[in-house]
Amino acid sequence: MKAVRLALCALCFVSAGLVDGSQKKAAPARAPALAPRPQIGATPPMGWNSWNYFKERVDDATVRAQADAMVASGMRDAGYVYVNIDDTWEGQRDAGGVLQPNNKFPDMKALADYVHSKGLKLGIYSSPGPKTCARYEGSYGHEEIDAQTWANWGIDYLKYDLCGLREMMRAAESPEAAHTMMIDAYIKMRDALKKTGRPMVYSLCQYGNDAVWQWGESVGGNLWRTTGDITDRYAKMAEIGFSQAGLAQYAKPGHWNDPDMLEVGNGGMNADEYRTHMSLWAILAAPLLAGNDLTKMTPETIALLTNKEVIAIDQDPAGKQGDRVWAEGPKEIWTRPLAGGAKALGLFNRHHAPLPMQADFARLGFSGAVKVRDVWAAKDLGQMTAPYKATVPGHGVVLLRVSK
Ligand code: GAL
After folding, report:
1. Which of 111, 334, 351, 400 is the least crowded, having the fewest Cβ atoms under 10 Å away?
2. Is the pLDDT of residue 132 over 90?
3. Where is pLDDT greater, at 27 or 276?
4. Domains in the chain and their CATH numbers?
5. Choice from 126, 161, 204 to test ligand 1 binding pocket (greatest atom count within 8 A of CB)
6. Ligand 1 contact via 112 beta carbon (within 6 Å)
């Protein structure tokens, strides 16, 4: 399956996919002038998640400190909003079945109030199985009561991680029965969340199995993980990021492919590698969930995470995911159609040493002269007709914004 996707996309040139005004339906003549309801996840969610850096060490004080740092560092103003608690917050159920946080989180409602007071939103984590991946209490058989508990606390985002249910799926009669069990579990929580009346982003985490991109939206997913876990290594990040070719057609406002959280700032990659990470995720219209300790960021890490032009590509209002349009050995070109007919263009070098690359704008769907901007260099390169040539650093990228 993956091989087919790769073969198809390494050869093809995707069409421009310009935003087409004709798709917009005219409002009925005498419709009342209601303000449009903001759609959950209209652009890929941005925020922070505790797992990549803190794992089971996350607690109330950590979450408050991350919220503070998200504001102080300028991340909130750059668009990062969700402060997401991952696994290991769960305690025991009380006599009424209500799940309590463990002693790392003395008062979730107070924590949510604190996070909200900073202009941020709070996310939480659970599993459709009896246990989570870290063997804490899951939501199996308690979906409605858990959703209501989260709504009562003021939770805005749920990551629902398959783990514990996998053990039950293994005991199913057939792969089809196991698949149905999983789909039903995600639908059950979708409905439970809906019943609370509180809008919550619904993030599916089942590692991309059973081509989740084909059915994630139908079970209510605002985003769905497309891969296994990322680590803070170039090889893993690149394996995940560059394997996303062919998935663009499944992403749209409200429903996104999720190649996992960011590792920027965790120290295992160099600046070129982290620029590749950010650029690729932006072209992929991926959620930008920082996974580092926001209280200990170097100016370089803050600059990587808050680069306005890179974020603008990720959050482009047209909501179209990009794709690979050309590959030769370790060199890959990816493009993303942007609102107004512009394109983001990433020239990626997966080799460890610098390599010359070039982008032929005519072959990328442009006719005549184009306006080119080097995004990371924050530099206008002027009007071009001839192919653009650059030496791309090892494991690095040149990210361009190209317009007529
Ligand atoms: C994994 C998941 C990670 C993290 C972890 C927590 O299954 O992919 O992102 O949530 O569980 O136990």
Report:
1. 351
2. yes
3. 276
4. 40-314 (3.20.20.70), 323-403 (2.60.40.1180)
5. 161
6. no
Candidates 251, 329, 319, 262; CA nearest to 291 is 262
Give the residue, by CA position, lying nearest to ligand 1 atom 8.
Answer: 229
Catalytic residues: 161, 229
- What are the Cα distances from residue 79, in Å, to 15, 120, 169, 188? 29, 10, 38, 31
* CA–centroid distance, residue 129 to ligand 1 (Å): 13
DSSP class per residue in 342-380: -EEEEEEE-SSS-EEEEE-TTTTT--S-EEEEETTTTEE
60 lines ligand 1 (CB under 6 A): no
CB 130 within 8 A of CB 95: no
CA 86 / ligand 1 centre spacing (Å)? 8
pLDDT, one tens digit per residue, over 153-197 is: 999 999 999 999 999 999 999 999 999 999 999 999 999 999 999
User: b vs e for 12-29, b when ≥16 Cβ sit within 10 Å of the residue's Cβ?
Assistant: eebeebbbeeeeeeeeee
Q: From atom 6 of ligand 1, which residue's Cα is the shortest distance away?
A: 87
Helix (H, G, I), strand (E, B) or coil at 235: helix
- Ligand 1 atom closest to the Cα of residue 205 is 8
Look at 2-6, 263-267, 272-276, 317-321 and tell me which has the smallest mean pLDDT.
2-6
Question: Could you tell me the distance, in angstroms and rounded to a whole number, from the CA of residue 277 to the centre of ligand 1?
Answer: 20
Cβ of residue 134 lying under 6 Å from some atom of ligand 1? yes
């040149």: which residue's tokens?
A: 398
Instruction: Kindly give the pairing relationship between strand 370-374 and strand 397-403.
Output: antiparallel
